[in-house]
Each structure stands twice: as C-alpha cells, then as structure tokens.
Write a structure and sequence with these properties.
Blueprint (H helix, E strand, L loop, with lengths): L31 H4 L8 H4 L4 H14 L1 H14 L5 E4 L3 H4 L3 H19 L2 H4 L7 H15 L1 E8 L10 E6 L22 E3 L5 E3 L2 E3 L5 E7 L13 E5 L10 E5 L17 H22 L2 E5 L11 E2 L20 E5 L17 H16 L3 H5 L6 H40 L12 H7 L2 E4 L8 H13 L5 H9 L3 H17 L7 H25 L1
Parallel strand pairs: 10-12
Antiparallel strand pairs: 1-13, 2-3, 2-9, 4-5, 5-6, 6-7, 7-8, 11-12
Helix pairs in contact: 3-4, 3-9, 4-8, 9-10
C-alpha cells in the first residue's frame, strides 16, 4: 500500500524470457523459419468437435475414392478383426473354487450358449442385419473413419427361437450431436457442438457430462446433418448406464488422444491432405498416359467443311460425335477434320513418368508412418529381404494388437458381460455368487478374444521358434497356437486324440515313418527291376 495516499501499488510484471529454453528452439518468435508458424491450440472441444463433421466427410470420401486410404482402413480391419473375434472364456477357477475339469466344462458350456446368441443376426442385432462377428468389422471400420461409433444396448421380448432379449444397434457418429431448438431447417444444423441440458449439465457434441466431467448421457438425433427430409429432427436422450442395474446402455467405441476428450478423431485425420494429393496426382498421371496412348488424326482442308463429315471416331460401336464446330475429340482411331485456318499443337507430356512410382512410394512411407502401417504392408508390396519384411510385419502388429485390445475393451467384453448377466438371471448359466459379490462376478466374467494371427513369412522358422519357446517354458502351447493360426490348442488336442483313435482302429499307426521307410526300401528294388523289364520289351 502507498502509505501517503492509501492506494495499492502494483509491482511491474517481469517480461517472459524470449531467449532461453524453448524460446531459442521450437517456441522462438524471432527465427525466420518460425516467424510465420502461428500455432494456436484450444480445448479438445475447440480443436476436435468443431471440425469433426468436415473430417468425417473427407475421410469417408477418401475411403471411397483413394486406394491408399482404402488400404489403410481395410488392412487394419483384416488384421485386427478379420472374420470376427471369438470368445474364449477364462474364469478365475481358484477364486471360484472349481477344479480344472469343472472349470473347463463351465467354460465350454458358456461359449456354446453365447454362440447361440452371437451367431444368428436375428438374435443379437436390433436391425437383423449383422451377427455379432460381422458387426465387429462394421463397428471397427466406422470407428476408424468417423473417429468413433456408438452402440445402443436394447431389450426385446425373448421368443422360443431366441431365449435372450439383448440386442445391439450401431449409431453412426453423425447422429450423436448436441440438440438445437426445433425449426424448419433443424435437420440442416450441423456445427452447433456445445449446449446445456435441462438439468444444467454441459453437452459436448452430443455427450452430456456432469459437474465432474463424467459422461452421463448421449443425445441421438433422428436425422443426419444436411439430410433433406420432411421428417422433423428430434433428439433422444439415452443415459449411459442403467439406474438400477448399473449396466451400460451405450457403448462408445473411441480412441482418445487428449484428456477430457469426449468425441473421437478420424484415423485418417492427419493424412487427409497427402492422401488427397496422391489421389489427384495418380488421376492426372493416369489421364495423361491415356491421352498419350490415343491415335488421333487431323485433316486440314481448303474445301467447304460443311460438305465433309468431321470429328468422326473410327470405332463402329462408338456413339455419334457432336456436330458442334467447336468440339474435337481424341481417342483410338479418331479422325478430326479441321476448318480452314485451324491447326493443332500438342504439348509433350513424356509419359509414362519415370518418377511416378518413386514419388508415390515416398509419400506412402510418410503416410504409413503416421498410421503405424509400414509402406510394404500399406501397398501390399513385399520386395525387401525376409528380415526387413518380417520387421515391418512385427512393427505393424504392435499397433494391430493394441487396437484389438482397445476394441475388445470397448465392444466385445461389455456386450459379453451384459449377455452373461442375462444368461445367469434367466437360469441358462449357473454361476453361484454372481449377483452377491462383485469380485465373484468378475471371476465368472473373465474372457479372452481370439482373432486373426500374425501369419508367417517362413512357416518352418516360425513353428520351430514357437516349439523352442514352449519347450523352455517361455510360452504355452495355447499361446503358440493362437499366434500361429488363431486356433485353439484344446480343440486341436481333442481332434488329434480322436483322429489317433481312428488310425488305431484301422490298424494304422499314427507315427509309422520307420515302418514306411522299411517298406519302401524293400519294394524299391523290385519296382526298378519291373521298370527295366518293361523298358526292354519296348
């Protein structure tokens, strides 16, 4: 305080240091290379939600029109999901007090019961379009392209055909949005992302959160943004979890990249520009090569052009050519008659362009690095050595396995857990203590999800490595079977035991290599003698 005047005094604020630390590096405002680099980043909602609609539309268009973008999405889908992730029940038998045999019987019964619901599209899909396994691929692709996808869990009345009432319905990301006041053009409103719920909670792009930032509900609109329809746009509020059961009503499949982020970002967001430019460049090169291949003749004449046909295509099946005097055509065998005083000048495109492949490959390497897919796998062109190709596959599989774990946690396990709740409640599965103790319930709900295996570039080496790992206790036969072909060691062992019994019943030894070699050694001289005799007769 100023004692004489009784007024507060303010201390001068020290200026921020400009020439220390990052001020001399990436945060410099004086270096020529960085002067024009103005980067402003806001909240996840400002940086993501406000631009998500544009990102989704561009990503979908690239998926439909750019082969590299299509490969990126489908390569992930095929390796992460494949034909579907299959349930392998893994209960905690020690906590539950079950013997190995009792645990095995319970797990097999539960897997078979789950298959009853999952394998039939009418039993699990609210729309009756996909079964549980094909729906996984659809949810995964939609999540990658749009950034996220929402799955509603519904209940219907069980029937004699299907004893379960659980159904899932996928909702595309566009239909999850913040409600706006109804108007004639409400279906065209698309960029209002933030709002307030009636209870005072904040809404971020269709996701309602409470004062602590926890998600409590989702808003589903009845129409798509910019959809031209006479149906009025309405929003339905769906609570994230049931009040009485605590079970999820909504599954939100999303890969977050920032804290306090409530909506996902398209998998292709960071590479939209290079993918678009590569597509344009490819189209241009293709068009130039086609034009260069055309054989077109031009006739210059002083005669009255109205007395002569012109712009005629040599192909007898070609459609009629326009008679417009300002139109000329190029194509295989095309003949154009020029009017007096007209001439034609061609540029020299020099096609095919020798640098086209090298340039595209260079861009694909950068795109693949951003998407965690090596260029060899992105282009499906394995021209490197065995060790280089294997290293590329191993690196890609790190990302595939990570995304599989995320998808399992967001989609497969929650649906299985809700299904198991119903199965136990209806008495079709016996699980003592399931509803009494959360720890016991978690022990019954343990599961693994088996998907496509990594595959082998050299199967002999891969199998020998797995066998060595099993012999030394570094791996189990079950794990090795999953890695090699995505199968089940238990099922393989049962099938092999049955086949060996069949071989024994037929008086054929399963391991008869030694006897076979002896038989061949005895018969080979006789066969050679017979062949020699036949040769002498000829």
């Amino acid at each position: 305080m100023d004692k004489e005047h009784g007024k507060p005094t303010s201390k001068p604020v020290a200026p921020l240091p400009k020439n220390s630390g990052y001020g001399e590096a990436g945060a410099s405002s004086t270096k020529k290379a960085l002067k024009g680099f103005t980067a402003r980043s806001g909240s996840p909602q400002a940086d993501i939600d406000a631009h998500n609609l544009t990102l989704r539309q561009r990503a979908r268009m690239l998926y439909m029109s750019a082969p590299i973008a299509t490969s990126a999405i489908k390569t992930n889908r095929t390796n992460v999901i494949g034909s579907g992730l299959w349930l392998k029940s893994r209960i905690d038998r020690e906590l539950l007090g079950l013997s190995v045999e009792d645990a095995r019987i319970w797990q097999k019964k539960t897997e078979a019961e789950f298959e009853l619901w999952a394998a039939e599209k009418r039993n699990c899909d609210a729309l009756g379009i996909n079964n549980f396994y094909t729906a996984q691929g659809l949810a995964f692709i939609s999540g990658l392209l749009s950034g996220d996808v929402v799955v509603l869990l519904k209940r219907v009345k069980p029937t004699g055909y299907n004893p379960y009432g659980l159904r899932f319905q996928m909702i595309e990301a566009d239909r999850v949005s913040t409600p706006v006041e109804f108007s004639a053009g409400a279906s065209l409103v698309a960029r209002i992302t933030e709002g307030k719920a009636k209870n005072g909670n904040a809404i971020y792009d269709g996701v309602e959160v409470d004062a602590n930032g926890a998600i409590v509900a989702y808003y589903i609109r009845s129409t798509y943004p910019y959809e031209l329809t006479r149906t009025p746009t309405e929003w339905r509020r769906v609570e994230a979890y049931g009040k009485e059961t605590g079970l999820p009503n909504v599954l939100h499949i999303m890969e977050a990249e920032r804290p306090e982020q409530y909506r996902g970002v398209s998998y292709l967001a960071q590479v939209i520009e290079p993918l678009l430019q590569v597509r344009r460049y490819t189209d241009s090169e293709l068009t130039a090569a086609v034009v260069e291949s055309f054989f077109t003749a031009f006739i210059t004449t002083e005669a009255d052009p109205n007395m002569m046909p012109y712009n005629e295509v040599g192909d007898e099946n070609a459609p009629p050519v326009s008679d417009d005097e300002n139109e000329y055509e190029m194509g295989p065998g095309t003949v154009n008659v020029l009017r007096p005083g007209e001439s034609v000048t061609f540029g020299d495109p020099k096609r095919p362009n020798g640098g086209f492949e090298g340039f595209v490959n260079a861009v694909c390497k950068q795109v693949g690095a951003a998407l965690e897919i090596p260029a060899d796998l992105l282009l499906k062109a394995f021209n490197a050595s065995y060790s280089a190709s294997r290293a590329a596959l191993l690196e890609a599989w790190k990302a595939f396995k990570m995304r599989r774990e995320w998808f399992v946690d967001d989609f497969c396990k929650p649906i299985y857990n809700v299904w198991l709740y119903e199965a136990v409640a209806r008495g079709r599965i016996e699980a003592p203590g399931f509803f009494a103790d959360p720890r016991i319930r978690a022990a019954w709900m343990g599961s693994e999800w088996i998907g496509p295996s990594q595959g082998q570039l050299d199967p002999v080496k891969e199998i020998q490595a797995e066998q060595l790992a099993c012999d030394n206790g570094f791996s189990t036969r079950e794990q090795a079977t999953v890695r090699l072909n995505g199968g089940s060691f238990e099922s393989n062992a049962e099938q092999l035991a049955m086949e060996n019994e069949m071989l024994k019943g037929g008086q054929i030894k399963p391991n008869a290599d030694d006897d076979l070699n002896k038989l061949v050694a005895e018969l080979l001289p006789r066969i050679i003698n017979c062949l020699r005799k036949e040769e002498g007769k000829v």
